[in-house]
TrEMBL record:
Belongs to the MreC family. The lineage of its organism: Bacteria, Bacillati, Actinomycetota, Actinomycetes, Streptosporangiales. Gene3D superfamilies: Rod shape-determining protein MreC, domain 1, Rod shape-determining protein MreC, domain 2. Pfam families: MreC. Keywords: Cell shape. This is Cell shape-determining protein MreC. It comes from Nonomuraea monospora.
Length: 245
């Protein structure tokens, strides 16, 4: 009986994903019945982890607990360096699906304090921002999305610029000063937004992989390799504001 129920949940989840990706987006459906859609996605993730065996489930639970603990201390590099505003907290979540374009679905939503336009990161660096939040799930736009634009700072020199998503290539950094020094291997971090939304300050975005053009040109740009492993996301942290903010 339990096996039949799990297979039914898996089948329903696969059908929803297929419709969302190939026929028509489920955004209206999510708006009207987000709790149902979210429950199916969460159940699908839970069933998938269950099929992986009890050992894998226990491992994920340990990782989840460890991530939560690191979020409350200085153990997580990206969180420790981030300028998290007072009252904000970290909510741990699993990536449970991939949406259209450069986006993912996580198994934490409004019931956990998750809201639109808040920072999502991994233990390695910036992942993206929340663009939609339902009761139990949320959609996250990755930093490599073409519409992504992030205020940035060079970790060493302090030079300011903007990082934009370049699908298929990663990220492109445009520095405000065309004469600013920049080298391969330089680290780029978030500049931060007012009130920490959508991005808190000091989170690693990535490292310079290719310097484009010469100093003194009209613009000073470089390709940046993301710090977070965006193609292999598992556990992430969502920086959520205090209630009512």
């Amino acid at each position: 009986m339990k096996r039949a129920l799990v297979l039914l949940v898996l089948g329903s989840a696969v059908l929803l994903v297929a419709v969302d990706r190939t026929l028509t987006p489920l955004t209206p459906v999510r708006a009207a019945g987000a709790s149902v859609y979210g429950a199916v996605e969460s159940a699908f993730a839970t069933a998938t982890r269950a099929f992986g065996g009890q050992d894998r489930l226990r491992e994920l639970e340990r990782e989840n607990a460890a991530l939560r603990a690191r979020l409350l201390s200085s153990g997580t590099r990206s969180v420790a360096r981030a300028g998290v505003p007072d009252g904000h907290r970290g909510v741990a979540a699993h990536v449970v699906g991939f949406g259209r374009g450069q986006s993912v679905t996580i198994d934490a939503g409004v019931s956990s304090g998750v809201a639109r336009d808040v920072t999502v990161l991994s233990t390695d660096g910036l992942v993206g921002k929340v663009t939609w939040a339902g009761p139990a799930t949320a959609s996250v736009s990755l930093i490599t999305d073409a519409a992504s634009s992030i205020g940035a700072r060079m970790s060493g020199s302090g030079e300011l610029g903007v990082v934009t998503g370049v699908p298929g290539e990663g990220l492109r950094l445009s520095l405000f000063d065309p004469n600013a020094p920049i080298e391969v291997g330089d680290e780029v971090v978030t500049l931060g937004s007012a009130g920490g939304r959508p991005y808190v300050a000091g989170v690693p975005i990535g490292t310079v992989a290719v310097v484009e053009g010469e100093a003194g040109a009209a613009t000073r740009t470089a390709l940046v390799r993301p710090a977070a492993r965006l193609s292999a996301l598992g556990l992430v942290a969502v920086i959520v504001p205090p209630p009512g903010k």
